[in-house]
Amino acid sequence: MIDLLPLDYPDAVVAIGAALLGITAGALGVFAVLRERSLVGDALAHAALPGVCVAFLVTGAKDAGTLVVGAAFAGLVGALAMVAIERSGRIRPDAAIGVVLSSFFSLGIVLLTFIASSESANQAGLEKYLFGQAAGLLERDLWIMAGLAAASLLVVALAFRPLKTTLFDPAFAASTGLPARALETLMTGLLVVAVVVGLRTVGAILMVAMLTAPAVAARQLTGRLALMIPVAALIGGAVGVTGALLASGTDLPTGPVIVLVAVGVVVACVLLAPGRGVLWRAGRLRAERRRRLAEGVLVDLETALHAGPPPTAQELADVSGRRPGAVRRGLRDLERTGMLADDAGRLRLTDAGAAAAHAMLERRALFGAWLEHGHRLDVPDAREPDPTDLRASLGDDLADRLHALVRQQEARS
């Protein structure tokens, strides 16, 4: 794969490493984000630092495999410590995260300082696990990262249904016989794997961004967990490669650039995601307001035409009580849809406009009848009908019975 990429060997290694990090952290970070435990990843990333230092002190070598084992062990100890503190019932989960994060990270800094003051020639570069040093990745590091990523994703694929059940409803999962606590611990352990994969690239401090940003972006694009995990992985991989290439071309630190790219993707998804994006929803709300305005102006014009001669736009505004600007906007929309005809400044409805106005008045009358007589109907289920189309919600039979009740009341009066 390194030979296939149109990049220099160091850039290709960094790009592949960043892709592996993004895919792993994106897929596994979904469980942290949906559990509302994103800061657990931050605590685990900081907890891995003393493990790296202890592994170096024990072996005296800066071997990537040994340091990864130390980081993984420390991360697992930190994860079990958080779980134990939470289950004690005396400390809140957020406090447990804070305790583990601060204590383990403080221990890591102390150990780093101790190692730096020693006379070991191999200690240079350990501080890179704090902020990351993607440029120092080697081919054997990629094999380790790829193995951890493949193993963790395989676990997710094999245990997807139990993990999904426990993720959204731990009590129900336990009631069905699933080992809910073990599965929750497994989800935390998967975060440890993601942290270990990313320590060399972005470091302990920035790792939480890679666990949360792709998952948050994917959540804006889909609401299904089965799609959210691969989408988050793809976003994470793309973010990692893009950030690595940008950093390589600008001589900037790789980790921070990757994180900034991830933040940019999150902002774009939050603003523009179909169905959930802020700008998307603002556009839909604006369109809905314009539609309702046009419908209101249509009804006002129908009422004015029945009361007298065709009005002008100003006369319609005076009669309806709406602002002239709003009336003009509504009239323009009606004209574009072929419901309005302008006869020398006098407003008339086309056949389509008259039919639409009559249908709207009927829907309003039917909803008023529902509010007044709906309790007298024997509705087969407890539902709240759509006020914009009551007939479609209730069915023709119940709608006709509502009309019959209205006629009976009018006959009695």
TrEMBL record:
<dbReference type="GO" id="GO:0010043">
    <property type="term" value="P:response to zinc ion"/>
</dbReference>
<dbReference type="InterPro" id="IPR001626">
    <property type="entry name" value="ABC_TroCD"/>
</dbReference>
<feature type="transmembrane region" description="Helical">
    <location>
        <begin position="67"/>
        <end position="85"/>
    </location>
</feature>
<dbReference type="InterPro" id="IPR037294">
    <property type="entry name" value="ABC_BtuC-like"/>
</dbReference>
<comment type="similarity">
    <text>Belongs to the ABC-3 integral membrane protein family.</text>
</comment>
<keyword id="KW-1003">Cell membrane</keyword>
<feature type="transmembrane region" description="Helical">
    <location>
        <begin position="97"/>
        <end position="116"/>
    </location>
</feature>
<keyword id="KW-0813">Transport</keyword>
<dbReference type="InterPro" id="IPR036388">
    <property type="entry name" value="WH-like_DNA-bd_sf"/>
</dbReference>
<keyword id="KW-1133">Transmembrane helix</keyword>
<feature type="transmembrane region" description="Helical">
    <location>
        <begin position="189"/>
        <end position="213"/>
    </location>
</feature>
<feature type="transmembrane region" description="Helical">
    <location>
        <begin position="142"/>
        <end position="160"/>
    </location>
</feature>
<keyword id="KW-0812">Transmembrane</keyword>
<dbReference type="Pfam" id="PF00950">
    <property type="entry name" value="ABC-3"/>
</dbReference>
<feature type="transmembrane region" description="Helical">
    <location>
        <begin position="225"/>
        <end position="246"/>
    </location>
</feature>
<dbReference type="GO" id="GO:0071281">
    <property type="term" value="P:cellular response to iron ion"/>
</dbReference>
<dbReference type="GO" id="GO:0043190">
    <property type="term" value="C:ATP-binding cassette (ABC) transporter complex"/>
</dbReference>
<dbReference type="InterPro" id="IPR036390">
    <property type="entry name" value="WH_DNA-bd_sf"/>
</dbReference>
<feature type="transmembrane region" description="Helical">
    <location>
        <begin position="43"/>
        <end position="61"/>
    </location>
</feature>
<keyword id="KW-0472">Membrane</keyword>
<protein>
    <recommendedName>
        <fullName>Metal ABC transporter permease</fullName>
    </recommendedName>
</protein>
<feature type="transmembrane region" description="Helical">
    <location>
        <begin position="12"/>
        <end position="34"/>
    </location>
</feature>
<dbReference type="GO" id="GO:0055085">
    <property type="term" value="P:transmembrane transport"/>
</dbReference>
<feature type="transmembrane region" description="Helical">
    <location>
        <begin position="258"/>
        <end position="282"/>
    </location>
</feature>
